[in-house]
Structure formats: C-alpha cells, structure tokens
Amino acid sequence: MPWTSSGSLTSDRIPTRQPTTAPAKQQAKRKNQAGPLKSKAVSALETRLHNVEYASGKEKNPKGGCFCLAREHGLSTYVLLCYGCGLVLCNLNLPHYACPHCGESFLDNTRRSALVAQILEELRGQVAKEEDERHRAIEEARKAEGAFPMLPGASNTQGRRPAVKGTATGPQSSHKVLSLNSTTKKVTISSYTNTPISSRPPSLVPEEPRRFPPREISYVKQPPDPERPWKNMQFPDLQYIPPPEDLNTHSG
Question: How far apart are CA 65 and CA 85, in angstroms?
C-alpha cells in the first residue's frame, strides 16, 4: 500500500496530546512573583493603612464602637480622645471610623496625613522585625545542622528555609525494602513513602472582643428652682442636720 500523508498505520490516526508543562511553569512563575505569604500583623496594618487613606471618616463603626473608656481594653495609639466630645477611645475604636458618641471625624487633612505616617512607620517596623526573626531562624538552623555529622547520601540543607512551628516536619521521603522469600528463593522489592504528619493545631476562630455600650448618665432633667437654686433636685427631701455641739467648747 502506498504511503499517504494521512498515514497508513492505525497509530498514526490517534490524536496526540498537547504537552501541559507550559501552564505549570507559568503557574510556578506567578507563584514565585507573588512573594512570601504575609503575616497577620502585616496584613492588618496594610488594611488599616488603606482604610485611613481612602475612608471618608464620617461613617460610624457598624459594630457600635466601644465605650469602656480604655478601662477594659488598651488606650488607642492613634486617637486618644475625641476632638469633639472628649470621649476616651480604646483600641477597638479604629481611626477611620467616626466617634461612636458624637460622630466627630478623625480624618481631616492634617490628621489623616499624621495617621498615615504613623501606620507606615509601624508597618516598616513590623516587616523589619519579621525579617530579622526569619534570618535569625535560618542562622540557628545552620548552626544546629553544623553540630551533627552528615550521613553519606544525605542531601545538603544549607540555606534551606527552616521549618516553621505548626507546619509539616519535612518533605516526603521514600525508601525501598529488599526481601527474600525463603521458599521460592525469589527477591521482592517493595517501595514505601513516608508522609510527614502536620503538627499544626486546629485553627480556631478568633474570639470577638467584648464591646461595652454607652453608660446611662443620671442627671436632673427639670430646671432648677429659682427660689432655691442650691436645692438638690435629684434628692429633694434631704434635710440638713447640724452636728451636735461639743460641750467642752462652752465649758470653762
């Protein structure tokens, strides 16, 4: 049979599969470009910075804020007192929200710039702190590795990022077992793979901090009596009782 362009064999008519290595490489490249994962502290500071930069500052906290007057929570490091009513603000009152009592905004032009500069400084400090901790952990891992002799055939882990607490202890390891059957005199090779068990505890949902509502202030709602302006309007039935006379002062 003469050869044709379509192929004369049955295998020539089977469609070939396109290689899928390119998308995998692209995904790995994108993953590397994304950089390391950010910590919760860095993510929280970046979110706070974004809110301070772009929020109007006129909206109140949808959770109601907190009126504990910094007695139950720490004092706010951004706005200590409301500029309008003087309310003492704890750290649950975020700076991009208005005062929970009078609605005073903390984000005019001057205050917004000062808050942005403060949060940027905190963000730089947090990033530098985490970077120092990462380098210190790498250095400690290198020192610990140098304290033990390397076994023949063991891979060098110099420069490898140390395992983080709460993650898997290491990569998967495989080994082969050679066994001899005493009856059939045949050799059997078995392969086994050890998968490290993660020691990460179950993730717990962070507990929402308790927020204290505004306290009820007791005050007199009626106007004072013009004839007795000193009268105690809250307790009108009070009577003055003079102290007993000291007899020693009149004797002699």
Answer: 15
> Which amino acid, one-letter code, is at 216?
E
- Six-digit token string for 156: 């060098």
Contact 103, 60 (CB under 8 A): yes
Beta bridge partners of 188: 179
Take residue 244 and report the two structure tokens written for it.
């007993």
Query: Is the Cβ–Cβ distance between 108 and 97 less than 8 Å?
Result: no
Element counts in the chain: helices (H) and strands (E): 4, 2
Alpha carbons 1 and 203: distance in angstroms, whole number = 69
Task: At 229, list the tokens.
Answer: 């302006």
Other CB atoms within 10 Å distance of the CB of residue 231: 12
Q: Which helix (H) or strand (E) holds 190?
A: strand 187-194
Beta bridge partners, 175, equal 192
| Cβ within 8 Å of residue 92, ≥6 positions away | 65, 66, 68, 73, 209, 211
Match 């005050």 to its residue by tokens: 219
| pLDDT in 10s for each residue of the chain, 252 residues | 455 555 555 556 666 655 555 555 565 555 555 556 889 999 999 999 999 999 999 999 999 999 999 999 999 999 999 999 999 999 999 999 999 999 999 998 889 999 999 999 999 999 999 999 999 999 888 887 765 555 555 544 444 444 444 444 455 667 677 777 778 878 777 777 766 665 555 556 678 888 888 877 666 777 877 888 777 777 777 787 888 876 666 555
Contact 134, 159 (CB under 8 A): no
